[in-house]
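Task: sequence design from structure.
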């Protein structure tokens, strides 16, 4: 697997790996070598079919949803590849206690304010502090996971262990269990979206009548959660 590849092919493989749940570039490279052979070239990738990628390397990727596979194959072909990513958003200072009654939310992201990443392969996590009055992007945490990490999902879960919610396009069952074990509740949103819009919506939900699961995340006492569910005013 030492054959040299062009910068363009390397870019495509990196972007395609991000589009696949729990898949890094090394895993995808292994499958591609079996699917198209060495050297991996733009010409070979242009002929790649979804089914060929799914069945390569003894079906290494066969459990991944077809919609994700189609997006990855398109990226491998150069469709939808953008060289210049949007600049990262600016963060806002935050100190503990600034926003009473707030919760912390992590958004899996690959680009700017987009919530477009899978938990196990996104480039970074956008960390928001959200209350019933406002939201702030307080930190951007790059997912620079060591290549020799024994369990990359455990390392990723540790990056967001101070949060209460995780917004992500996808997270596998075993990985979700590791996230939950740290006290973070994963929220899967397969279509993704803009994290700013999501946080604006969350502000409105917190300010109104939070559903029981969110009230629990917010630390509302059980008897008060019952009142929320019944639509009664909390004193």
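Answer:
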């Amino acid at each position: 697997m030492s054959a040299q590849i062009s910068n363009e092919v390397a870019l495509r493989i990196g972007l395609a790996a991000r589009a696949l749940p729990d898949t890094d570039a090394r895993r995808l490279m292994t499958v591609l070598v079996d699917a198209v052979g060495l050297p991996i070239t733009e010409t070979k990738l242009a002929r790649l079919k979804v089914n060929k990628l799914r069945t390569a390397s003894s079906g290494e990727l066969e459990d991944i949803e077809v919609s994700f596979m189609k997006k990855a194959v398109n990226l491998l072909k150069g469709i939808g590849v953008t060289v210049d990513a949007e600049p990262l958003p600016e963060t806002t200072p935050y100190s503990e206690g600034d926003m009473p009654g707030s919760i912390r939310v992590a958004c899996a992201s690959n680009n700017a304010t987009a919530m477009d990443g899978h938990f196990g392969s996104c480039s970074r996590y956008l960390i928001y502090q959200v209350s019933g009055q406002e939201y702030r992007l307080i930190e951007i945490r790059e997912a620079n996971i060591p290549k020799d990490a024994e369990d990359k999902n455990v390392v990723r879960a540790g990056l967001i262990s101070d949060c209460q919610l995780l917004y992500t396009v996808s997270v596998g069952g075993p990985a979700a269990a590791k996230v939950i074990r740290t006290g973070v509740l994963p929220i899967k949103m397969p279509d993704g979206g803009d994290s700013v819009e999501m946080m604006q919506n969350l502000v409105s939900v917190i300010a109104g009548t939070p559903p029981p699961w969110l009230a629990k995340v917010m630390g509302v006492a059980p008897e008060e959660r019952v009142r929320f569910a019944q639509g009664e005013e909390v004193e």
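The chain has a mean pLDDT of 90.
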